[in-house]
Amino acid sequence: MSTDYQQDRQALGARLRELRTEAGIEGKALAALLGWQPSKVSRLQTGRQTPTLADVTAWAEGVGRPEVVPELRGRVTGMEQKYRSWRRTLSSGHQARQEVAISETAATREIRALDVARVPGLLQTAEYARYVFKSGAEFSESPRDTDDAVRARIRRQEALYEPGRHFRFLIWEAALYVQTCPPDVLAGQLDRLSSVIGLDTVELGIIPLAAPLRRAPSHGFWIYDQRLVIVETISTEMWLDDADSIALYERAWEWLRESALYETQARRLIGRARAAVDPS
């Protein structure tokens, strides 16, 4: 779970505790009033459990402060909009999330993306994407709508060929070797990467394993113009639109870009990975 998310949850918990103590109600008494286990009151107050809208509404009414319901519900909604559980996002499968990606891409003139463990979705072949979605569905235990998700991902890639758009990708060299798919599928994916170098809408940089770095690429992220950053963790997808977060990720992008190789040098690194996958 992200540090920012936990801090937001702890701040909300502190607010709930404040409301309870101001009302002069013990935690056990509030739990009994609401029909909860006392441990739930404790978890909510300490930020160890994320409250639902129903939870904060019941809390406010239980401590006699119904006027704070909009405030508390607003805090919960803000957390849900900023930090999206993969379990919830993928509850109906991957296609719906791909449709959101299509919409965000259509509303953006410049996308900057960093990936450290796989090829970015906008550059994936259909077969490579198929294995990404199969693995994702198995891990998250979400519905398998692989064919629909692949079709949506390929449809999103049409934006790569639209004049006036700019797509700037950074890929950690190690991602070229990660075999979450059969070798022939990975080989085809690497061929695809080489083919996009030279497109006037695409800038592709490979960060060599041996490159000196001002900061290690700890995780991937996507920057949409200067309005939104999307970060994926194992459990959560973060949508960050505040100025400080955007500036932080833009700085991370520029630092990493300093170490990337482009054009002929990038092709050479991709070719080396291609030879390792298929030495014949």
Structure description:
There is one protein chain. By secondary structure, the protein is an alpha/beta fold. The chain has two domains: 3-83, lambda repressor-like DNA-binding domains (434 Repressor (Amino-terminal Domain)), CATH 1.10.260.40; 90-277, 2-Layer Sandwich (Endonuclease, Chain A), CATH 3.30.870.10. Helix content is 52%, strand content 13%. The protein is built from twelve helices and seven strands. It has helices at residues 3-22, 27-34, 38-45, 53-62, 69-82, 86-89, 95-106, 126-140, 146-156, 183-196, 243-257, 263-277; strands at residues 83-85, 110-115, 166-172, 202-207, 221-224, 228-232, 236-240. A seven-stranded mixed beta sheet has the order 1-7-6-5-2-3-4. Strand 6 and strand 7 form a beta hairpin. The longest helix is centred in the N-terminal third of the chain and has 20 residues, at 3-22. The protein is elongated and about 75 Å long.
Read across the widest sheet, the strand sequence of neighbours is 1-7-6-5-2-3-4
Model regions low in confidence, pLDDT < 50 over at least 5 residues: none
Radius of gyration: 23 Å
CATH architecture of the largest domain: 2-Layer Sandwich
Termini gap: 43 Å
Number of continuous helical runs: 12
List SSEs in N-to-C order.
Answer: HHHHHEHHEHHEHEEEEHH
Topology at a glance:
Blueprint: H1 3-22, H2 27-34, H3 38-45, H4 53-62, H5 69-82, E1 83-85, H6 86-89, H7 95-106, E2 110-115, H8 126-140, H9 146-156, E3 166-172, H10 183-196, E4 202-207, E5 221-224, E6 228-232, E7 236-240, H11 243-257, H12 263-277
Parallel strand pairs: 2-3, 3-4
Antiparallel strand pairs: 1-7, 2-5, 5-6, 6-7
